[in-house]
Each structure stands twice: as structure tokens, then as C-alpha cells.
Amino acid sequence: MNLKEKVTKLNRIGKTLEKRLSVLGIETVEDLLFYFPFRYEDYSSILTIASLQAGQEVTIKGKIELINSKRSHKSRKIITEALIFDGSERLRVVWFGQPFISKNLHVGEELFFSGKVKSDIFGLQMVSPAYERVKKETTHTARIVPIYPLTIGITQKQIRFLVSQVVHYVDEIVDWLPDDVRDVADVMELREAIRSIHFPENQDDIAHAEKRLKFDELFVLQLRAEMLRQAISVSKAPVIKFQENYTKEFVASLPFELTKDQKVASWEIIQDLGKAKPMNRLLEGDVGSGKTVVAGMATLNTVLNNYQVAIMAPTEILAKQHYESFCVLLKDHEINVCLLTRSMRFINRDKVEINGDNVEKESLSLKELSEKIESGKINVIIGTHALLSDKIKFKDLALVIVDEQHRFGVEQRASLIRRQSALVPHFLSMTATPIPRSFALTMYGDLDLSIIKQMPKDRKVIKTRLVDDHNRQKAYDFIREQVKQGRQVFVICPLIEQKEKDENEIEIINYSFTGSQEKKSVLIEYEKLNKQIFPDLRVDYLHGKLKSVEKDEKMQNFASGKIDILVSTSVVEVGVDIPNASVMMIEGAENFGLAQLHQFRGRVGRSSHQSYCFLFTTKTSVKSKERLEFFEKTNDGFVLAEYDLQVRGPGAVYGTSQSGLMNLKIATMKDISIIKLARDVARGMDFQKYPSLKKKVGEWEKDVHLE
Ligand code: ADP
Ligand code: MG
């Protein structure tokens, strides 16, 4: 048998167990070896019964003197009681609801019992301990016992048993880290680490094994980033000379003064553009922090150097908003700006909408527009990722700006690099998602960072309130008042993202749809608001299951003031600008991460109107109340993200898909020192010398994309 052998070849694995194991991703012997415990119980100390004290987690070794079962009067459960003698004293042991125990165990047998010592009026006892016949190599008792994440229908004992059956295969594991790299990183051999993670002899073993295994996961990510970084750094980019005078004029023409952070970010970008090496930068800044002008400055400089700029947004609405902003920002120059999406084709704000109503000029065919792009008549091309279609050919593309979709940015960029033969365009990714440094280093290790932390001065703070349900009517009255004053309102409902965590269970994410009283679904809420609460107002709804044309249409209606109240799921999260909206009402707020709530909140307060964010909850545990209260008084997206990263982990903060993208099983964003170590070791890596490392990155990518 080898590592790739199916686990079904093992003893005691039937069809049912096979299925359940595959739920955990365990199909081969290797999968089993790489299935790691998430914690341990230390039952390594074997004590005499006479020396026991209440509260200890220990192992005793003794003979069964008595054992019998009876049915409890109250709970109707089977209770098994035994008396154990180890030469020093006797101890009572009890199990609940495990009728088979009295058949398995017999008077006179000597066993290990591992569990917690408790005390009641009759003295000390052990409740539901793990037990095992006395032998040299134990699995469930008398050692540091691993606790694995489980799924329904599999027990700790089963996993431990299976692992003990295959542990000798560790000798077949080939360490993918070259010896000298391992030395530099100061991590143990992979075989040893795998053995120790399942069968540690002491706490040090666990620490060393964890370090090695976490390092492996984080190192692959860093290697990948390093490969990208190296590929980019050897390629050539157009040099964009700084247009100092025009840039000064541009800044002077703005109706506001740039914040210090905006100036620093702009400067960093302009510096990068001036180099013959492609810029690869992530511009992070809270909603409303003013990233657009920074991008505008980079665009202006690029176009004044006679190159083209492409700006991509994840949705048509966002693309259109950018188009409008850029037309205004660049109006003082002879710069041609176009918008190109599936349903819209505009040049320089001449209204040419293809399927919409406001066709003022003759409509522009895709062919005409792409000819203008290819000939270089158009300088700034704004759109969705449709821009990356092979049909669109640029003349001299020198800068690609991607808004709110960094992952997509990186992947697409690779394809752009491949397409562009001589010069690779500079790349700027923008996001309002606050990404703490540790996360950025891991996820976007290949990107340089510019951060806008400071908000423009005169920004009004959005008033945030956690509202008790008995004040709901007051909130509705308030909303009606706002609408009367001409404002608009968002109502956000969760689409079920309840994470249940049972001690020995793997995290189960429940995507079941609502209908229950617990969760407010968009449609139910919409019906209620539209028919009962605000029959006289214009209410509409939005959710992810709608066709994108429908979504865009509803958003357009909201943007143009045809809707007063928009009931929506989290699809409105990304940078949509509705300056007239002043109330953000969030149902089931406990279901969202704080960073996400912050994104919602950023949808309002985008003009001079005082804005409000109301949070409602359907069930309030103390913990979630604490989180929401923290949110109530904190306006800094970074602080909120950091808080949630600690409390709820990266999955909750950045969505399971993104943290899933990293494929982390054992490492987390809290492993800052290992993240740094992995980054340091990866920096400047000579991939010619270590082809195995390159291969590993390839395998990792394949794994991730298969999911
Ligand atoms: P985001 O970073 O969310 O994309 P925007 O670039 O859309 O933010 O800017 C939000 C609003 O703030 C815009 O109306 C913009 O004109 C304005 N703005 C940008 N910078 C400043 C500033 N330094 N002072 C005042 N208002 C600013
Ligand atoms: Mg923006």
C-alpha cells in the first residue's frame, strides 16, 4: 500500500464510513495523514487513584471490580457504573447513554481510563472517560489525545483508530522542502511533523509539528506571490513621466483639499509609474476615503504621456459611476473617455445608451467603439471585465485600474501580461475592504500597499444605533420622515449565513434559505414593508438570484430616485454611490461580519445629509451584542476588521470563498510570525535551483481551482 491508496482498503471501512470520510475530504491514506487535529487533551499523566483531585484531567490504570447498567428514571437513559481499583484506592466511574459499555468491559480486566475527575457528595468520580485495554501504544488514553474536526456519523475514536492504522506510512512521505530551505526556516522534517501532530509525546512536539505544517501552507502562498513578483519585475513597463504642472493644476481644480493620505498614495503611485518595471499596487481605503481622485491623478499622468488607461469595475452600475466621475475629473483636458459594458456604450458623456431610453446620439456599435480604442482615439476606457475580451484591442495600454475585485484583478492581469508582448501595463487595484497587514501579506503578498486611513475632513459621522425590537415602530416612523424629506433608504436582510460550531464538530455553514422566523428574507420583508408598513411609498427589492440586467435596472431606478426604499441582500455591498440615501437599516445584523456591516454603512452618508444606520437583531447572544455595540461606537473600518479577525476568523471577515482560496487547514491569520518567516524565506527564491518548489505551487493552484 502507498500514500495514494484508497482508505477503503483499510480494515473496518464500509460504504457508509467511506462516504462520511469523503465529506471530510479523506479518500486516500495521504488525506488521512494530512487530516489534522484542531486541539488535544493531555491525558499523558497516569496517576494513582489515591492521589486524584477534583478538576484534574488524567489517566488512571486499574482493574474493574464491579460493573453494571441501569435505566435512569428521569431521562430514561442507560447509566453504566463501574468500580475501579488500582492498588491504591477505588474510584467510581460513570457513563451515560452508552449501553454497549457493560457488554464490552468485564470484571477483572485492567484498563486505562482517561477523563476529568469530578467530585459529588459521594466523593470523587470520573464521568464518561475514554477507556482502552492496557498496552504499550495507546490511541485514546494515557497520552496526549488528539481531537479532530468531525462530521455527523464519525467519532473521534474512529478517526484516531484509522490514523493509528496508517501512521507507519509517514515513511513514504517525501519532504517537498529542500534540506537547506528547511534549515533556513528552522522547521522539522515533514515526516516527523506528521507523526507528531497525530501522536505527540509532549507539548513541544505539538508546537514544532504545528510550526512546520503551518509554515508549509503559508510558504506555498508566499512562493506563489514571489513567483508573480519575479515574473513582473523582469518584465518591462512603459515609463510614465510625472507631469508636475498639470498634476498641480488638477489638484488645484478640485473642490476640496486632498488629505495627507491621498497625497502620499498618489505620490507612491506616481513614483511607481515612473519606473520601467510594472507597478503592482493595492490601494486600500475605507468607503468614501477618496480613492477615485487618486486613480484620476494616475490616469491623467498616463494619458498625458500618450498612453491608454483601462478601468474595470465588477458591475455595470459601478462602471457607469466611474465613467461619470472620470469625465468630470478629466474635463479640463483633451481626453476621450468611454464606457463599455454589455448594455452601455458612451463616449465623453454623449448619451448613447444601447438598450435604455436616453439615446441622444446615433448609437455606437461595438465595432465602431473598439476601432476608436484600437486606433488610440480613446484614452480612457472604463467598463466591466468585458474590457478584457479578445475583441477589444488597445493601442498603448499602460495602466490597468481594477476597483473592488482584487482577486479577479490578479488573475486577469496574468492574462494581460501574456497578451501584451513587449510592455506590461502598470496595475492598480482598489478596495474598500479593510485588509489587515497580516492578511494582505498572505493573500496579496505580491502587491505593494498604499493605504488611505484618513477620511476627508468635513465628513459627517453616520449615526449608528442598535435598536431594540420594541422600538421598531419608531424606526419606521423615522424612515417615513426621512423619505418625506426626499431621502432614500436601504433595508438589508441576511441570506442565512449562520455558523454553528459544536465542540467536536467541524464548522457547518448553513446556506438553507429563510422562511423561518429567525431570519428575514428579502421577499418576506419586502412584502411586509410594501403592503403593511409603507403602502404609500415606493418600495422595491434586490437579491443575488435576479438576472444581472434586472439587478442593474433596479439599481438604476434607485439611483435616479424612482424608488424610496430598497430591500436587499448583501449584493449592494460593493461601492455603489447613492448620495441621496440617508438611512441604512440592517435586519439580523448579528449574521454579518463587522467589516461587511461597515461596507453597508458606507452606502449612506455620501453627501451632506446627516445619515443613519439602524441595526436590528433576531437573536442576541451576549457575544454578538458585544460585537454590535463595538460596531456602534467604532467608525474605523480597519479597527473593525481587526476586531472581527480576532473574534471570528478570516472566513467571517472576508467570506469563506476568499479564505477558502488560500486553502488553509492549520495556519490562520493569527500566525503572524510564521507568515513573516514564510515571506522572508520566499523572498528572492531561486526557482531555477529549486524546481520542486515551483511544482508545489502548481499543485496548490490546481487544488484551489478544483474547489
Ligand atoms: P471611495 O474611496 O469610496 O471610492 P470616492 O473616491 O468615491 O471614495 O470619494 C467619495 C466622495 O468624497 C466623492 O464625492 C469625492 O469627490 C469626495 N472626496 C474625495 N476626496 C476628498 C477630500 N480630500 N475632501 C473632501 N471630499 C473628498
Ligand atoms: Mg470607489
The amount of beta strand, in percent, is 15-25%
Name the poorly predicted regions: 351-360, 496-520
- What does the largest sheet look like? 8 strands, mixed
CATH architecture tag of the domain at 239-452: 3-Layer(aba) Sandwich
CA distance, first residue to last residue: 27 Å
The CATH superfamily of the domain at 239-452 is known as: P-loop containing nucleotide triphosphate hydrolases
Shape: globular
Number of helices: 23
Indicate the structural class. alpha/beta
If you had to describe this structure to a student in words, what would you say it looks like?
The protein is of the alpha/beta class and 707 residues long. Among the domains are: 45-142, OB fold (Dihydrolipoamide Acetyltransferase, E2P) (Beta Barrel); 239-452, Rossmann fold (3-Layer(aba) Sandwich); 463-634, 3-Layer(aba) Sandwich (Rossmann fold). The protein is 38% helix and 19% strand. The protein has 23 helices and 24 strands. The strands form five sheets. It has an eight-stranded mixed beta sheet, with helices on both faces. The protein has a six-stranded parallel beta sheet with strand order 17-24-23-18-22-21, with helices on both faces. The radius of gyration is 31 Å and the shape is globular. Bound molecules: adenosine-5'-diphosphate and magnesium ion. Adenosine-5'-diphosphate (ADP) is lined by residues 256-259, 262, 285, 287-293, 432, 456, 575.
